Amino acid sequence: MNHTEVLTRYVTNFVDELVANGLTDAVISPGSRSTPLALTLAEHKKMKEWVIIDERSAAFFALGLAKKTKRPVVLVCTSGTATANYFPAIVEAYYSRVPLIVLTADRPHELRDVGAPQAIDQIKMYGDYVKWFHEMALPEADLHMLQYVRNKAASACYIAREGNPGVVHLNFPFREPLMVDFQYENVWGIHDRSHPTSTLPAYEGKKHLSEQQVEDVLLKLTNKEKGVIVCGPQTDPELPEAITKLAEKWQIPILADPLSQVRAGSHVSDVIIEGYDALLRNQAIRERLKPEFIIRFGAMPVSKAYSFYVKQHQHALQIVVEDHEGFREPMSNPTAFIFADAVACCEVLTASATPKSSKTWLQIWKQYNEIAKKHLNCKPDQELKEGEAVRTLLETTPEKSCIFVGNSMAVRDLDSFFWTTKKQIEVFANRGANGIDGVVSSGLGACAAGNRVTLVLGDLSFFHDMNGLHAAMHYQLPLTILLINNNGGGIFSFLSQANDKQHFEALFGTPLNIDFKHAVHMYGGQYVLARTELEVREALLESYQQAGLVVVEVKTNRETNALWHREKWQAIEQEIVGERN
């Protein structure tokens, strides 16, 4: 068997096993050393390839696609610094628990550490940010080696998905020549799963609380009448209904993060408190809403005000539910952890004895929530504000849609203005490491799953990943972008750095002074500048009827925006705190 046939059978069996384990999408960054993998992934009839030239953009694209489809996506690049450009997205995937299978091509061992071009140390280069690293053997094609490559492919798929999903990294050393030939007989290997070269499926059960553990949890809640359920960022589509039923049964509020998937859907209920970020900014209100216990599902919420609430009431019983493992409690408060399937946990608690609840506790939360919504929902004046643009987006977003939101101000405005709705809306963000890099590419990756996505982000995030727009043009992906341009880092206007007038603009405000219309047109998109709430609404509605990329830009003032937000918060505080004075 010659070199080409050996290489071909080695790689085709690996890729075929990925497909056999349910993988359907591969994001490929062009390069030479990765030729065997790239060609084979493109050739397999059940694998869809996405060619993204910029490696950093490619990795974030794969991340967005994996978030939306909830299954691993293959990511392939050549050797050298191309592999390093994947690192930011791998870090994000680690913290946000997104499954990726990273396949890096490499020089063979004899070309390492000898000055060969495009050769860097790729062994365990992503450190602890991957769940598993494996250096693949040099290609061979006997029965044992074909079983080996299938075993590694199946292991990668399983490890990426099991427990808390995450990244696996396989490094492939290839010798030249690098071309493969798909004309060989039975080139994809044996499809009969009982054949010796086939791997068998892996099965994983869910963790459940025992009867005794349920009793122990309920015992901890004895004589505690003022409880709060918190749902942070999470993507399980079954949890919102389960968690809402539990809160209704126990008659306690749900503080629902905008990324919790709890604020939208047929399950929505008046026990869901959307305005808690505005409420908990005031110390007196936090004291009035003093809890006796807090049960949290999902990651820590976006809201900084919630962290103040938890810190102020650190002596309240706090329970965090994790499906598998992890200690996500950044406040370091005394915390009990439940490691069990979150949906099953809600169901068993709902079916068990109901803790005694204060008759007025839930009503107070609901009353305060209505006050917050009343002030936040005031109609705009002549100058359109960022929060009003986001509120208009949420009112306009169609049924069964997806929103991808950037970090900094965008996700916080979503937190403030995302009211509960019966519409089915999925909401995603890169809140693992909370960076502004790669957001455009991640939004486009979510689009690659097949439906139009609305991406809302600021000008710095847009600028940071304008390369990502090439995928929108190349694949005609259906993306609407609400670009909120406050000419710089608007979030810093809310922080103490804003008081340093001498250095603030240069170091934190960082105005770009860019006309983004030209960038949008360069990538074949449609551009609209919206100056009023009505224009935003009309532009968004029209975008949902269009194909490809549409960017709706809203220009705002950072200082005015910060003042507007503070006025809203002060009005809420005054009405609530002043009502008993």
Automatic annotation (TrEMBL):
SUPFAM superfamilies: DHS-like NAD/FAD-binding domain (SSF52467), Thiamin diphosphate-binding fold (THDP-binding) (SSF52518). GO terms for biological process: menaquinone biosynthetic process. Homodimer. Residues 219-405 form the Menaquinone biosynthesis protein MenD middle domain. The keyword Manganese applies. Its cofactor is Mg(2+); Mn(2+); thiamine diphosphate. Pathway: Quinol/quinone metabolism; menaquinone biosynthesis; Quinol/quinone metabolism; 1,4-dihydroxy-2-naphthoate biosynthesis; 1,4-dihydroxy-2-naphthoate from chorismate: step 2/7. InterPro entries: DHS-like_NAD/FAD-binding_dom, MenaQ_synth_MenD, MenD_middle, THDP-binding, Thiamin_PyroP_enz_TPP-bd_dom, TPP_enzyme_TPP-bd. NCBIfam families: menD. Residues 440-554 form the Thiamine pyrophosphate enzyme TPP-binding domain. The keyword Manganese applies. Keywords: Magnesium, Manganese, Menaquinone biosynthesis, Metal-binding, Thiamine pyrophosphate, Transferase. It comes from Virgibacillus pantothenticus. GO terms for molecular function: 2-succinyl-5-enolpyruvyl-6-hydroxy-3-cyclohexene-1-carboxylic-acid synthase activity; magnesium ion binding; manganese ion binding; thiamine pyrophosphate binding. Binds 1 thiamine pyrophosphate per subunit. Residues 13-125 form the Thiamine pyrophosphate enzyme N-terminal TPP-binding domain. Belongs to the TPP enzyme family. MenD subfamily. It is an enzyme of class 2 (transferase). It catalyses: isochorismate + 2-oxoglutarate + H(+) = 5-enolpyruvoyl-6-hydroxy-2-succinyl-cyclohex-3-ene-1-carboxylate + CO2. This is 2-succinyl-5-enolpyruvyl-6-hydroxy-3-cyclohexene-1-carboxylate synthase. Its EC number is 2.2.1.9. Catalyzes the thiamine diphosphate-dependent decarboxylation of 2-oxoglutarate and the subsequent addition of the resulting succinic semialdehyde-thiamine pyrophosphate anion to isochorismate to yield 2-succinyl-5-enolpyruvyl-6-hydroxy-3-cyclohexene-1-carboxylate (SEPHCHC). It holds the Pfam family TPP_enzyme_M_2. The lineage of its organism: Bacteria, Bacillati, Bacillota, Bacilli, Bacillales.
